[in-house]
Structures are given as C-alpha cells and as structure tokens.
C-alpha cells in the first residue's frame, strides 16, 4: 500500500477498477486509522505540483488527484490541523483590531478612566485638607509619609499577601476596593461634618505650648487625625487600586504584544479623566462664591466630590465583573503555572533574593524619592501663595487639567517610542526628564533674589514664579511617569509566573512606593536638621537627586537585559508546547501488507526538494 500522510493523505486510485475488494482488504487498518480518510468534499490538486510523485493515470486522460482531510491521530492530541491549501479562518476585526482584543482593551480603558478620575479628586483633596487645616502646614507631609503612610502600607501588603493565598482573584479584588469606596463616602457625609467634635484641638494646642514649634508636624497628625486618615487612604488608592488591582488585572488578561500596543493608550482615556476631573475639582472649589455667608462651602464641595468618587468606584466594580464573565484569558506557559504557593515570610525572602524584583523595586523607590524631594518644597511655596482651601483647591484643579493635557500628548508619542526604540529607551526617559526639570526648579530657588527685578516686569514675584516653575516640573514629571514609566513597569511583570507577579506587585507597588516617598521625606528632615532650613539644603538636595537618578538609570538598564531574556524564554516555551501538541503520523505499508504508523518526513507540496525524500515516505505508489 502506498504511504499516506495524515494531514493531507494522497490516495492513488487503482488502474483496475475491479480490484476494489483487494484495496479494501489493504485498508483494513486499526479503528483509530479507519476514519482518517473520510472527506465529503475532496479538493483537487494537480499532479504537476508534486514534482517527485509519479502517478498512474486512470484511463487515457490524466486525472486530478484528490486531497483527503485527515482526522486527528487521537482526541487527546487536540483539534485537527487544517489541510494543505486550507487557510486558517481569519478572526473578525474592527478598525484593524481583533474583536476579542477590543473586548479587553475598551473595558480596561474605562476602568482606568474611572480609577484615575477618582485619584485626581482624592489627590487634590488630601493636600487641601492637611496643608490648609488650622494648626497644620506643608511640613506635616514628611511626617505623614514616614510615620503613618509607610506603616499602613506595610500592614496592607502583609494582609494582601495572606488574602492572596486564601481568596480567589475576584474575591480579593472586591475585598480590597469596597472598603475604600465605603470610607470615602463616610468621610464626606460623616467624618468631615463632625471634625470639629472629634479633633482634639485644645489638647493639641496645650501640647504645642509645652513642646514648642519643633513638634508642629507630629502634633498636627494627632490634631487633624481624620484628615490624616483621608490622606493615607487617598495615597493607598494610588498604590493599591491603580498599581496592584488594576495593573495586576490588566497583566492577567493581556499578552506582551497587546501590552506594547495598548498599555500606552490606556493612559489616553485615563488622562482625559485627569482633564475632566481637574475641571470638576475647580468647579466645586468655586461653589463658595455662589453661597451665602456662614455656609461652609468646602463641606458642600467635599460631599459632591465624594459622591462622584463612590459612583465611579461602583462603575469600576461593574466593569471588572463584566470582563471576568465575558472575556477569555490568554494562554500562558504551563511551566509558570505550577509554582507552589508560599507563606508570607517565604514570599518576602523569595522577592528579596530575586534580582529582577530588586531592580523593579529600585525603579519605584527611586521615583518616589526623586519626586518627593521636589514636591514637598513646591507645596510649601504653594500654600504661601494660596492660603485659602478653596483657592488652593482651585489651583490644584488647573494643575490636574494641565497634567492631563501634557500626559495625553505624551501618550500619543509613547507608542512611537515603544515601537521604534523599545522598552529600554522608554524606561530611561522618565528619570532624565525628572532630573532636568528638578535642576531648573532648585536653580530658581537658589537664584530667585537676583531675578526679582526681571520677574517684576512680567507681573510676577519670585514666590509666584517658583510656584509656576514647580508646577511645570510636576506636570512634566508626572506626564512622563503616566505615559512611559508606568507602562514600562507593568510590562516587566508580564513574563513572571503568577505567584511572583501577584506578590511581587504587592511588595513593590504597596510598600516600595510609600517607602520611596518616605525616604525622600527622611532625607529632607535630615537636611533641615543639619543645615537649618530647606533653602540652605537646596544644593545638597540637588546632589542627592543626581545620585538617586543615576541608580535609577542603572537599574533600568539591568532590568532591560533581564526582561528581554525572559521574553525570549517565554516565547520558546510556548513554541515547544505548540510543537508537542502537533503530531504528524504517517501510514505506511509493512511487509505483511497491513497499514502501520511509520516515521518519515511530512509531504510538503510547496517544497522543491521533496525528491530527496525516501520514496516510501514521500511518494504514493499504486497498490
């Protein structure tokens, strides 16, 4: 019997039609092979396309040969492969993008819009509450970040790691986000209206008289404890809901190829949220102008903004539910799914021992320290220029809108940067921008006095100029972070196994993020105590900024090498898994005349050197 190829078996017809019974006896194969050659609609293929095959004509005229579609060797081997000449069905697309991909990207973009809309409102509100409150100032921020925010972040990370071992991913998501939504709603309608009754103002004043003004910052934390709790919860919304919940979910349902294409574009919708939320903050901050005397305009503004935060939070939960129920997960390498679960201490030891995780942590900590070295100094100037809560909040609304516009523009450029220059170059742009703009801000603080006559010609004081330059520094730094730094950081998690991905994100984004900000605050406190004032320490802060950015750039370079290697390894594993799932057995005639499986090169009609194959394996014969 002639050799038959499973995926496109060529059946040579006999010269004598009467020999069909003999042919039937030769085809008395095993049960698994009998039904392989059934095809209701065989597709003809001309004989000349197979250069090495010699066919016996049926009658006086040459006839076409037939391709018969073969069945799979076994059901366990997976779905049948398409026959030769049979194109794989093209997936439906819209605007050049597969529908299945759009079902992921659009809901994720909407989730990011809602999360960042809330974060902008919360970020602007938290600064107004703690900086403009009576008995407080911008000096409270370093103490808050070091002694309140960091311990709460560490506690949350430990709790999250524990919950990740006992809850499903969906239950973990809801268990984390719903307490945030409930707290912000309660703050606007319960805690803030009762703040005059629950804040120990008289006790704090008494302690301040005893201890002196050096303890203004620590005492302010006790004096306005509910505002400080709001501050910490708003900070945790940025590190927990954005970094851990959203990006962890996005990394779970997207591939690296999709991430390179769409992660920068997530920020387009998100930074439209920055623009609109900035306008929202400004609108509610200006409500006081239309209210009568004796009315607490800030309380009314706060209730309205917290209502929006609660509504957006519920929308996030709905979108998460929809994606989990209607969007399929991408296939991952099976090798990376079999890692056993680790306890809390084992997880921490593993994360510390991983160079990849350490480099990622360096990126996050370096960003936190660098931005904090500039931001706290800028906010102290901002309060001096805008002492009223409504004026301060109105300026922050304009600041958020400008940040959204700048980031939107950077997002359009970022996809070109990823496509043209790759991950490594994109990861180095943010530290470079932050260093250059930070040097400009500190230079203005150092040499503002000599520039005062020139600034007066433009109707500005050195203080107002410092406020505007600091705002530009923050706008450019944050736009580079949102458009390049965050997508780079999240792409770096994708090749990791699921356990490292979940716990690594919790450790890096929840702990390292406030650790960086606290580190910057500690550096500032040390400089102030050593040199007497923040102004005197400005040159040294610039030197520290240079060292931090240098370490940041070195970690980015190291991570680029490891990320590229992991990507190649993952692609190789997936190729090997696909190759193992595809089997091409060949049916050949043995000495006894019965069909049996034999090894041999698969028949490729497009190949020009099929004649070099053995005739038993590649050329059909007459029976």
Helical content class: 55-70%
What's the overall average pLDDT, rounded? 73
What is the chains' assembly state? single chain
Per DSSP E runs of 2 or more residues, the count of β-strands stands at 8
Strand proportion = under 5%
Q: Describe the biggest sheet?
A: 3 strands, antiparallel
Gyration radius, in Å = 33 Å
DSSP summary: helix tally: 19
Q: What is the helix/strand order?
A: EEHHEEEEHHHHHHHHHHHHHHHHEEH
**Helix-and-strand structural type:** mainly alpha
Provide the spatial order of strands within the biggest beta sheet. Answer: 1-7-8
First CA to last CA: what distance? 5 Å
The low-confidence parts are: 1-88, 334-340, 595-623
Shape: globular
Written account of the structure:
The N and C termini lie close together (5 Å). Strand 5 and strand 6 (97-98) form a beta hairpin. 68% of the residues lie in helices and 4% in strands. The model is unreliable at 1-88, 334-340 and 595-623 (pLDDT under 50). Helix 5 (169-191) packs antiparallel against helix 9, helix 9 (225-253) packs antiparallel against helix 17 (498-531) and helix 10 packs across helix 14. It contains 19 helices and eight strands. It is mainly alpha-helical. It has helices at 20-26, 31-34, 99-132, 140-166, 169-191, 195-198, 201-211, 216-223, 225-253, 256-285, 297-326, 344-353, 355-385, 389-446, 452-456, 462-493, 498-531, 538-581, 615-618, and strands at residues 4-5, 9-10, 43-45, 65-68, 93-94, 97-98, 586-589, 595-598. The relative contact order is 0.14. Strands 1-7-8 form a three-stranded antiparallel sheet. A three-stranded antiparallel sheet has the order 2-4-3, with no helix packed on it. InterPro entries: ADP_ATP_car_bac_type (IPR004667), MFS_trans_sf (IPR036259). Its main location: membrane. It comes from Vigna mungo (Black gram). Residues 601-623 have a biased composition (Low complexity). Belongs to the ADP/ATP translocase tlc family.
């Amino acid at each position: 019997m002639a050799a038959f190829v499973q995926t496109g078996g060529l059946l040579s017809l006999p010269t004598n039609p009467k020999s069909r019974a003999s042919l039937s006896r030769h085809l008395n194969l095993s049960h698994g092979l009998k039904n392989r050659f059934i095809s209701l609609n065989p597709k003809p293929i001309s004989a000349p396309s197979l250069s090495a095959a010699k066919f016996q004509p049926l009658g006086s005229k040459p006839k076409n040969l037939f391709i018969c579609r073969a069945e799979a060797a076994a059901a366990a081997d997976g779905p049948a492969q398409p026959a030769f000449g049979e194109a794989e069905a093209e997936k439906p697309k819209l605007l050049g993008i597969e529908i299945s991909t759009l079902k992921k990207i659009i809901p994720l973009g909407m989730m990011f819009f809602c999360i960042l809309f809330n974060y902008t409102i919360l970020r602007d509100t938290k600064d107004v509450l703690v900086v403009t409150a009576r008995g407080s100032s911008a000096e409270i921020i370093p103490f808050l970040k070091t002694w309140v925010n960091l311990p709460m972040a560490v506690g949350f990370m430990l709790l999250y790691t524990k919950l990740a071992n006992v809850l499903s991913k969906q239950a973990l998501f809801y268990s984390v986000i719903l307490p945030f939504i409930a707290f912000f709603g309660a703050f606007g309608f319960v805690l803030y209206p009762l703040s005059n009754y629950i804040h120990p103002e008289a006790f704090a004043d008494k302690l301040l008289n005893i201890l002196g003004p050096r303890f203004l910052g620590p005492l302010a934390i006790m004096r306005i404890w509910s505002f400080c709790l709001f501050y910490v919860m708003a900070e945790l919304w940025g590190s927990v809901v954005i970094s851990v919940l959203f990006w962890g979910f996005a990394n779970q349902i997207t591939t690296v190829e999709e991430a390179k294409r769409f992660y920068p574009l997530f920020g387009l919708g998100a930074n439209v949220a920055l623009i609109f939320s900035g306008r929202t903050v400004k609108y509610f901050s200006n409500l006081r102008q239309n209210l009568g005397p004796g009315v607490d305009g800030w309380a009314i503004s706060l209730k309205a903004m917290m209502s929006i935060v609660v509504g957006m939070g519920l929308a996030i939960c709905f979108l998460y539910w929809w994606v989990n129920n209607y969007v399929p997960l991408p296939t991952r390498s099976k090798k990376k799914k079999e890692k056993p679960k680790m306890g809390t201490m084992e997880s921490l030891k593993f994360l510390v021992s991983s160079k990849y995780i350490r480099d990622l942590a360096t990126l996050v900590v370096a960003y936190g320290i660098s931005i904090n070295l500039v931001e706290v100094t800028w906010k102290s100037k901002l309060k001096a220029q805008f002492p009223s809560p409504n004026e301060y909040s109105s300026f922050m609304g304009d600041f958020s809108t400008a940040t959204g516009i700048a980031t939107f523009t950077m997002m359009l450029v970022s996809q070109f940067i990823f496509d043209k220059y790759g991950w490594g170059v994109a990861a180095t742009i943010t530290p470079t921008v932050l260093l250059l703009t930070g040097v400009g801000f500190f230079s203005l603080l150092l040499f503002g006095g000599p520039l005062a006559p020139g600034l007066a010609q433009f109707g500005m004081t050195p203080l107002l100029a410092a406020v505007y330059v600091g705002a530009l520094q923050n706008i450019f730094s944050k736009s580079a972070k949102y458009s390049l730094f965050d997508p780079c950081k999240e792409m770096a998690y994708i090749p990791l196994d699921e356990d490292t991905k979940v716990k690594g994100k919790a450790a890096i984004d929840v702990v390292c993020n406030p650790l960086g900000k606290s580190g910057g605050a500690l550096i500032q406190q040390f400089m102030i105590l050593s040199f007497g004032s923040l102004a005197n320490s400005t040159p040294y802060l610039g030197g520290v900024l240079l060292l931090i950015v240098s370490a940041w750039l070195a970690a980015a370079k190291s991570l680029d090498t490891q990320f590229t290697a992991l990507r190649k390894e993952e692609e190789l594993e997936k190729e090997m898994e696909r190759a193992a799932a595809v089997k091409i057995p060949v049916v050949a005639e043995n000495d006894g005349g019965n069909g049996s499986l034999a090894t041999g090169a698969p028949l490729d009609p497009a190949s020009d050197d099929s004649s070099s194959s053995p005739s038993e394996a590649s050329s059909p014969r007459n029976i």
